[in-house]
Specification:
- Belongs to the FliR/MopE/SpaR family.
- Residues 260-279 have a biased composition (Low complexity).
- Pfam families: Bac_export_1.
- The chain is elongated.
- Strand 1 and strand 2 form a beta hairpin.
- The longest helix has 39 residues, at 69-107.
- The protein has helices at residues 6-29, 40-54, 69-107, 125-140, 143-157, 168-176, 179-208, 214-233, 238-260, and strands at residues 113-116, 121-124.
- Helix 1 (6-29) packs across helix 2, helix 3 (69-107) crosses helix 4 (125-140) and helix 6 (168-176) runs antiparallel to helix 9 (238-260).
- The relative contact order is 0.13.
- The protein has a two-stranded antiparallel ribbon with strand order 1-2.
- It has one domain.
- The protein is an all-alpha fold.
- It is built from 9 helices and 2 strands, in the order H-H-H-E-E-H-H-H-H-H-H.
């Protein structure tokens, strides 16, 4: 007769529940996986499948009851780690969407906004277009698989433990949040520069011929120039997107390592194995300046 004690039952529950919490945290926050169009049962099923694959290979778990206070603290910590890893990739898409917002405002398409089911807000047409391009590039580069690989590695770099995680990961995420402004501005610079030259030319034309109706011809010209520059820039967006994806995945890899370090150094060491994404050649390391 097979007998199962409560200690063994708690160990089995914890062996699946704690890895599942970190995985579901990443699936909830990461783009593509956490998209609102993906049904919740599909997300849960994917998380359970990944947890059942990863759980047998993770290090030994702490001897704590999942329903005790220590077990609940471990549960919350695993959730925070998974959300932080997914949020690191979400910031990359936020930077691309910000580039689209800047382009829309410069072109005069600020009024052409639509409801975005992902952010539950309104975003411009150019922003949604660039977000769709980034999503297709994300899939074409197999970055979603590299992200899942980084998630599996996080159980080795930051094993499930009752030790509170360090605050270095929070500081790393705060610094990584600056990517929204820097990368968004860099991606939109070609369009902003072209439209600035167009506005200067229209100002000179209005000064030379005051009888022209600048409000009647200015909007179609700026809109046409903006669309033309977007079409010309699209073939060259592969390398910037690849660099952003690489940096996002490297940041997601650093989050568990920093969380496991009691006192992280000022400059965390980069991993020796970059997350190579087969989208196109990139000169330099994944963390290079754009």
């Amino acid at each position: 007769m097979i007998t199962i004690t409560s200690i063994e039952m708690n160990a089995w529950i914890a062996g699946l529940l704690w890895p599942l919490t970190r995985i579901l945290g990443l699936i909830t926050a990461a783009p593509l996986f956490g998209n609102a169009s993906v049904p919740v049962p599909v997300k849960i099923a994917l998380g359970v499948l990944l947890a059942s694959i990863i759980a047998p290979a993770i290090p030994a778990l702490p001897a704590a009851d999942p329903l005790s206070m220590a077990g609940l603290l471990i549960l919350v910590q695993e959730l925070l780690i998974g959300v932080a890893m997914g949020f690191a990739i979400r910031l990359v898409f936020a930077a691309i969407e910000m580039a689209g917002e800047i382009c829309s405002l410069t072109m005069g398409l600020g009024f052409a906004s639509f409801f975005d089911p992902l952010t539950k807000g309104r975003s411009s047409a150019v922003s949604q277009f660039l977000a769709l391009i980034a999503t297709m590039a994300f899939l074409a580069a197999n970055a979603h698989l590299v992200l899942l690989e980084a998630l599996a590695e996080s159980f080795i770099t930051m094993p499930i433990s009752a030790t509170p995680m360090s605050s270095s990961a929070e500081w790393e995420m705060a610094k990584w949040g600056g990517l929204i402004f820097s990368a968004g501005l860099h991606l939109s610079l070609p369009i902003v520069a072209a439209l600035l030259i167009t506005q200067v030319a229209l100002g000179i034309l209005t000064r030379a011929a005051p009888q022209l109706n600048i409000f009647g011809i200015g909007f179609p010209i700026t809109l046409g120039v903006g669309m033309l520059v977007i079409v010309m820039v699209l073939p060259y967006l592969g390398n910037p997107f690849q660099v952003l994806f690489n940096q996002g995945i490297e940041t997601a890899r650093r989050v568990p390592r920093l969380a496991a370090t009691p006192k992280a150094p000022a400059a965390p060491a980069q991993t020796t194995r970059p997350a190579a994404l087969p989208l196109g050649p990139v000169d330099g390391a994944p963390g290079q300046q754009r």
